[in-house]
Sequence to fold (326 residues):
Amino acid sequence: MNIKTEFENVCARKNLSYRTQKTYWHWIRRFGFFCRKHPNDQRQQRIINYLTYLAKNREVSSSTQSIALNAIKFLYAEVLRQDMGDVSQFIRSTRPQRIPEVLSRDDTLRVINHLTGKKRIMVSILYGSGLRLRELVNLRVKDIDLQRLTVTVRQGKGRKDRATMLPAFLVAPLRHHIEDVQRIHNIDLANGYGRAKIPPALARKYPRAATEFGWQYLFPSTKISEDPRAKGQFYRYHIDPSVVSKAIKSATRTAGISKRITAHTFRHCFATHLLEAGADIRTVQELLGHSHLETTMIYTHVTTTGAVGTLSPLDRSDYQPLRAVS
Fold:
C-alpha cells in the first residue's frame, strides 16, 4: 500500500481542508523519519518515544505536540487501520499561562492608520469584529450584512459558526470594496473562470453555486490558481494570510510601536477594549466564539478600566495628589 496515496484518498473522503492535510502529512513524515532511526521499538513504544522526544529534545509547545499526536492518530486509525494502543504515558509539553499582548486603543488605531486599501479594511475587521486571521480570509461576500451590521463566521475554530458585529464605520469602505470584487468576478466569468472553491457536498447539490457572486471570497487572491488536489480545475482563492501579517508588521514598525504585534493581537484588543468599555463578559465570549468562559477570562488580566477592571489605590478620588518625585 502506498501510504501517501491512501492518506490523500482518506483526506478527500473525510473532506479535510488542504491546510489540515498538509499539516498532518508534515507530522506523519517526521514521525516516519524518527521510526527509521529506532527500528527495534514496538509500535506503541515508538509513538510514546516520539511524543516524548518532541517535548524534551525539541521543546515544542503543547499545541504543537497535540497536532503531532492527532496526525499520528489519523495515520493509524484512518489510513493504516491499526490499533496504536495506549500511548498516554508520553511526557507532555507544558502549557505556560501567558497574558495576551494588548495595545491601547490609540496605538491600535495608529497601526490601522498606517495601512491602506483592502489591508486597512481587513485589519479593521480583525479589530472591529474580533476575527481570527483564518476566519477573516475565509469570509465570503454573502457573510457580510451591511444592513444588519453583522459578520457571519462559517466553520471557525472547532468547526463552529457564529455571528459577530460589523462596525458601521466600515460600511462605506466595504461597499466600495465589494463593488471592486464584483468587477473582478465579472471579468473572470467572461474569461471562462469565476469559480470559488466551495464544500464538495454543496457543489454536488448546487452545481452553479461556485460561480455565484455571494460565494466568492470577500478578499480574493490577485491571481487564479490550479487546485493542488484536482488538476485542471482553476479557482480564485482567498488572499494569502501572510500578506496581512507582513502589512501589520510594516505598519507597526512605521507607527513606532516596539511591541510584537500580530494579526491575533487585534482580536485580543477587541475583547479587552470591549470589557474596558463595560461589555458583559458572556457577550464577549459569544462574539469571540469561545466554548468556555475560562478562555475569555484571560482578558480580565489585562483590562485597566470598565466592568471587570479596578482602579489602583493611588488613583482613587479620595486620595490627595502626591508631591512630584524628585
The domain at 3-80 is CATH 1.10.150.130 (DNA polymerase; domain 1). The CA atoms of residues 74 and 310 lie 47 Å apart. The longest strand covers residues 150-153.
